[in-house]
Known about the structure:
The protein is of the alpha/beta class. Helix content is about 35%, strand content about 25%. The protein is built from 13 helices and 18 strands. It has a seven-stranded mixed beta sheet. Strands 8-2-1-12-18 form a five-stranded parallel beta sheet. A hairpin with a 7-residue loop joins strand 10 (about 140-145) and strand 11 (about 155-160). Helix 1 runs parallel beside helix 4 (about 105-120) and helix 1 (about 15-25) packs parallel to helix 9 (about 320-340). The longest helix has 24 residues, at about 345-365. The chain is globular and about 70 Å long. The mean pLDDT is about 90. The chain binds flavin-adenine dinucleotide. Flavin-adenine dinucleotide (FAD) binds near residues 172, 253 and 310.
Amino acid sequence: MGVCKAEGIIAGGGLVGLTLALALHQIGIKVKIFETVPDIKPLGVGINLLPHSVQNLAKLGLLEELEKVAIKTSSLTYYSEDGKTIWREPRGIAAGYEVPQFSIHRGDFHMILLKAVRERLGENVIFMNHRIDHFDQDEESVTAHFTTHDGSQKQSSVTADFLIGADGINSRLRKLFYPGEGPPHYSGQMLWRGVTEMEPYLDGTSMFMAGHNDLKLVAYPIRAESMKRGKSYINWIAERRMPSDLNSRQADWNQEGVLEEFRSDFEDWNLGWLDIQKLYKNAISIHKFPMIDRNPIPQWTFGRVTLMGDAAHAMYPNGSNGVSQGVLDAMEFTRLMQEGGDILEILKAYEADRRPKTTKISLANRETGPERVMQMVKEQCPGTCGDVHTCVPREKLEEVATAYKKLAGFDKESLKKSG
Ligand SMILES: Cc1cc2nc3c(=O)[nH]c(=O)nc-3n(C[C@H](O)[C@H](O)[C@H](O)COP(=O)(O)OP(=O)(O)OC[C@H]3O[C@@H](n4cnc5c(N)ncnc54)[C@H](O)[C@@H]3O)c2cc1C
């Protein structure tokens, strides 16, 4: 049949919008990207790119750039708050995958994508200061209407064959389809996300989670450059249950966090190999962001328009899968475009593949995903375990870990099949 020759508009130049632009460009599809902010800056803190997304990013020729800046995560370990091991598993290359798992600064990843888009697609395909407002469509085309973000209220319109809403958790396009949806769904957990440069812990490339559903610490190093200097640029997340803090539910990545709001909760914690209070006190930055997601929706594709990434399926960070699932969306849509056919059918087929899969992951993450093992120990441990928890049988823990990998599509078998 040959590649579908439709031309597209991508609303949102975030991680998924830019990944999609690179993937479509690689098969010769023309796209224009419209981003609301006047200038893309390296914002945020740490994220994880799991092997299924790295395999795809490698196909886009980004592996070398990622290796230069990111940390190749060697293992993931769950601990109780007193530092006793619950479950440890190797990750990425150490686990026998052909590609690494990367822990990376979101801003570093965003800049890698932006540079690649500018180099490969050219300067004149990204339009900053363009906030999508609404669209019209008919049998022939879709026209997206934009206003400027900087207050000048200038308006412009662009017509193409298809429109992708990759405009994040507060997606305008999603709001047009679901006007009554309201704000994101709050989990009852508040997250303080920080970064601290200090001496490395464990092997300098390990990710860990400690605690349980009411109080948790997650940490992983994210910058290779820091490691080369004998230091570790550690991304950490202090998580506390705060069901009644209504004012703090606002999903604003620029909201600053204050040390005093959570530091003392961890005063009695002792992991042995990491000074938690030092980690917190020496933070370079702290952001306060609630753990939120969106309810799964019954339809993503409406004629020539569809949703992608967080706009389609914003999920809790449990399982570290958010951005990886967005990369998979972009690659599946691109695969279907390459197969060819009618654009309306391709947009429907994209949803048919990706919506059920991501719905299952979003719902599993609401049950804390693979992190469930920590709460199992909290509830079942009689307090007599040694350095390693034996209170929950190993097979049960392994069952949780394996089931989540399969569900999210990063078990080794699934990866081999998708090649
Ligand atoms: C500033 C910022 C910081 C973040 N920091 C972290 C972090 O530290 N850790 C983490 O796990 N996740 C973070 N995220 C979320 C993370 O990037 C997403 O969960 C995930 O990567 C999915 O990517 P996405 O492209 O779907 O969404 P995003 O990466 O959120 O990208 C959406 C893009 O759409 C743009 N946009 C929004 N509305 C419009 C509109 N009307 N018209 C045009 N463009 C629009 C936004 O400016 C943004 O660039 C952050 C997101 C943002 C925007």
